[in-house]
């Protein structure tokens, strides 16, 4: 066979090679277009969350509250607005100073305020807020206030007649006080920063905001026979993570020593 | 020239043109698609960055001291890439009710009342900032190529309750930013 009779076949083979190369390039372009910007998008999302947590912590710490807890801060009418107003965190510090514990009514006001501020991200993120102080002489009593928000997912229920289908409905956000008592006389529990870090290892923290603060307290100086003021160094922290199912039988959850029933919101 | 199967100089290469043309169509098709995706995502990032810049401007130290403070920030913003409306909206949350996002089409901005020396109300100044006269509406959203970004941040506002000098409180409010292209 003369070689010029094979000219058409060679051209087809060349075209097929060209097609193969072009397909490779097209696949690469397609994959690039699909993945383009994923890192930037993740970064923007994390940045938003980080800025949100910082803003939320500042807002919680700055907010005013009525000194008389039965009054309303702002009603729109100056005659009915609370007359005596203070910063919420200042009132909490003042309350802490006398007995080194936060009174339950102040705890509730702080909880309500935190819930309000965290409302916009409550659907998609779980979080923990805590006040921490370095109480060297009573280790283990370092957390006068710990509030955690987790979603309680119900146990999946099989759908009758459909072996593969399950019903998961009724999941809802719940708020728990954790850390038990912070009073060394009543007896403290073993919650520590390590307990919180271990719990966060299971959930994968996304954003963390931190504000250093002091907690003054009054003590009786037996040498001078007088009351004196001292301070604990401490901090307020807010940590967020993507909403995830928390197994309440895990040691990481048990170590937080959260109340068995969530806070009643009625 | 009368060999079997020979169709002429062009006719002989005709079968090879089919995969060649097919390859070119596929390549330019995917190239065009990728370019579209690239431009769309770049536009989205540009809008995201613009919203972050607006948010950073208003958030500042996380504390807004007055309407004047808010307006100064508003005037200093020079954002042209997106149209936006930003402002302060009150939290409205009963203890037992779940949080509801503000209605972005009908934002109810907090107002600061200005009084004269005798305590008479002179004006209500809304905490609102925008770079457009255009209003965000359902109809606007239905237009092709329209994208809307919204962000909500908590922020502390030093708020005058109107009970005379020094009657101010620090109130937690939401900084709401809605931007569209």
How would you describe this structure in keywords?
heterodimer, A: 266 residues, alpha+beta, five-stranded antiparallel sheet, two-stranded antiparallel ribbon, 27% strand, B: 181 residues, 34% helix
How would the blueprint of this fold be written?
The complex is a heterodimer of chains A (266) and B (181).
Chain A: H1 7-35, H2 38-62, E1 64-66, E2 85-87, H3 88-99, H4 104-118, E3 125-133, E4 145-152, E5 157-159, E6 162-167, E7 172-177, H5 193-203, E8 205-221, E9 226-242, H6 251-254
Antiparallel strand pairs in A: 1-2, 3-4, 3-9, 4-7, 5-6, 8-9
Chain B: H1 14-59, E1 63-64, H2 67-76, E2 83-90, E3 111-115, E4 121-126, E5 128-130, H3 138-142, E6 148-160, E7 168-180
Parallel strand pairs in B: 1-6
Antiparallel strand pairs in B: 2-5, 2-7, 3-4, 6-7
- Head-to-tail CA distance between termini of chain A: 95 Å
Kindly provide the radius of gyration of chain B, computed on alpha-carbon positions and rounded to a whole number of angstroms.
29 Å
SSE succession of chain A: HHEEHHEEEEEHEEH
pLDDT < 50 runs, ≥5 residues of chain B: none
Largest sheet of chain B: 5 strands, mixed
Strand content of chain A: 25-35%
Number of strands of chain B: 7
Name the strands of the widest sheet of chain B in spatial order.
Answer: 1-6-7-2-5
Query: Which stretches of chain A are low in confidence, meaning pLDDT under 50 for 5 or more residues running?
Result: none
Number of helices in the DSSP assignment of chain B? 3
So what's the overall shape of chain A? Answer: elongated
């Amino acid at each position: 066979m003369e070689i010029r009779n094979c000219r058409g076949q060679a051209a087809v083979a060349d075209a097929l090679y060209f097609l193969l190369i072009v397909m490779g390039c097209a696949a690469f372009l397609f994959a690039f277009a699909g993945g383009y910007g994923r890192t930037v998008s993740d970064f923007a999302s994390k940045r938003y969350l980080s800025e949100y947590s910082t803003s939320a912590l500042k807002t919680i710490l700055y907010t005013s509250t009525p000194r008389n807890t039965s009054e309303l801060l702002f009603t729109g009418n100056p005659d009915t607005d609370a007359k005596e107003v203070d910063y919420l965190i200042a009132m909490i510090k003042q309350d802490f100073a006398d007995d080194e514990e936060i009174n339950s009514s102040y705890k509730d006001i702080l909880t309500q305020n935190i819930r309000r501020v965290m409302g916009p991200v409550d659907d998609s993120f779980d979080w923990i807020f805590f006040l921490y102080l370095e109480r060297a002489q009573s280790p283990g009593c370092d957390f006068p206030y710990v509030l955690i928000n987790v979603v309680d997912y119900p146990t999946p229920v099989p759908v009758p007649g459909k072996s593969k289908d399950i019903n998961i409905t009724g999941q809802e956000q719940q708020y728990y006080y954790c850390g038990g008592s912070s009073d060394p006389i009543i007896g403290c529990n073993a919650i520590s920063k390590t307990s919180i870090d271990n719990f966060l290892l299971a959930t994968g923290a996304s954003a963390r905001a931190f504000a250093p603060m002091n907690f003054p307290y009054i003590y009786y100086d037996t040498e001078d026979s007088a009351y004196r003021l001292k301070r604990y160094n401490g901090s307020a922290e807010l940590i967020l993570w993507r909403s995830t199912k928390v197994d309440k039988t895990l040691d990481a959850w048990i170590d937080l020593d959260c109340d068995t029933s969530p806070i009643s919101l009625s | 020239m009368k060999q079997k199967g020979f169709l002429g100089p062009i006719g002989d290469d005709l079968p090879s043109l089919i995969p060649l043309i097919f390859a070119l169509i596929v390549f330019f098709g995917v190239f065009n698609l990728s370019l579209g995706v690239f431009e769309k995502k770049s536009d989205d990032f540009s809008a995201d960055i613009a919203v972050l810049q607006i948010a950073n401007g208003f958030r500042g130290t996380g504390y807004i001291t007055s309407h004047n403070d808010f307006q100064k920030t508003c005037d200093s913003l020079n954002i042209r890439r997106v149209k936006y409306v930003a402002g302060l909206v009150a939290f409205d949350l009963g203890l037992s009710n779940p949080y509801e996002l503000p209605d972005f089409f009908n934002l109810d901005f907090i107002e600061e009342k200005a009084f004269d020396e005798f305590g008479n109300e002179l004006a209500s100044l809304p905490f609102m900032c925008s770079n457009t006269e255009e209003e965000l509406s359902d109809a606007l959203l239905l237009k092709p190529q329209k994208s809307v970004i919204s962000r909500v941040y908590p922020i502390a506002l030093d708020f005058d309750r109107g009970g005379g000098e020094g009657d101010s409180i620090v109130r937690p409010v939401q900084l709401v930013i809605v931007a569209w292209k």
